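Researcher: Re-running this chain for the archive, since the previous output was lost when a drive failed. Same request as before.
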Amino acid sequence: MDPRLDVSLDRSSSEPLSAQIASNLRVAIRDGRLAPGARLPSWRDLAARLGVGRGTVRSAYERLLDERLIVTAGAAGTRVVAQPARVDSPPPPAPPPALNAPLSGILHDFSAPPLPFEMGVPAQDAFPAKLWSRLRARALRTGAMSPVTYPDPRGAATLRAQLASYLAIARGIHCAPDQIILTAGYRGGLGLTLTALQLAGRTAWIEEPGYMVTRSGLQLAGVRAVPIPVDAHGIDAERGLALAPDAALAVVTPGQQAPTGVPMSPARRQALLRWAVRAQAWIVEDDYLSELQLQGRVTPALAAGDRHGRVIHIGTFSKTMSPSLGLGFVVAPLALAERFAEVAGCLAPAPNLATQLAFAEFMAEGHYLRHLRHMKALYAQRRDALLARLGPHADIDAMGGLAVRLRLPSGCDDRAIAAEAVRRGMAPSPVSRWYAHPQQHERGLLLGITNLSEARLAPACDTLMALLAEMR
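Model: Regenerated structure tokens:
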């Protein structure tokens, strides 16, 4: 054999013979043993020399053809290309740029357990894990035996029926189960609503301060969000008309305003409903805390007083149970129910069926109402313990809802303090982040009370006070 074609084959190797032949020829071309223009043996000749099938040699040649190292020239045979393409290993690709995680600055870590003072997360130690595990295991078995067909995109009929009964009793909302669409939490409900209403290019009132996810979600949907200041009575429709008279939507938290905790007064509720009817606008009610009002009577839902079908009620079990359930719901006005169902069917079907079935049983057996009563008592106790611990040493405002506000001296950067707190194992929320125009408002920290167990309270408070002393 031509020494330039010294092809060695290892027939015991797992590498195919065609790949070994191609590799040998590739090295010979790269090393210059096979010069540009050199003619290679025919498939038949090389196969006979190596004792392999012609198809094996053909496959090896085809690899080199694909790599543009050889070229077929008809009667002139197969030759090494005049200017062989480089066969050196390409340089490793540059690492992709680091990307920000979604909701950065709002959630500190998607996989970590909740930290002291973290908002929006229920008590980790009070979740009914054993009961829920049993109900979910049963629901998984039921779901496995279900027909292999598409489930109702609005959600399981059993859970929607349970929700309709619960909303009538607990929130004063009288609706049919077919008006309820199950969603992946509040964010899923907001996305479903914005898609169904088709308000891109229009204007919406939002609360100032208010939930930053709502503000960002509206902007992503192409809706211009205009902040309307909130006072001790809630959002003011008259102020909204002065700032954005062309608004087609208002997104509010009337039960317990997020984050101030104030309930919207009856007069403000009526004014907002009158505006929606007069302007043919829509109101999205974010009922994020549902019945978790720690003192006084639970404020009724805004949708309970809607007589003209202008309120879209969004509820979630993220704050009352766990955000990991990924479960919420929308109550659509009767005139919009079919459209919401169509949008759900095409773009946003209800989440995990097993979770729905388990939660339907959880509600039917009375566990949900008992859980709410237990959580209200627990959170009231933890709020009082936090106030007692920090009250003598800091400027604390016992807000409604599930947080208290710690005021900071003028000139303090609440976002920098909050970022350092995360590094020290705490997660307070900077007040400024809740404002669309933070430079116009005071600084402070919102301290969530839900995960302040007795064992965590004193160390967390001591660490926080030490941090504040350093940052000042």
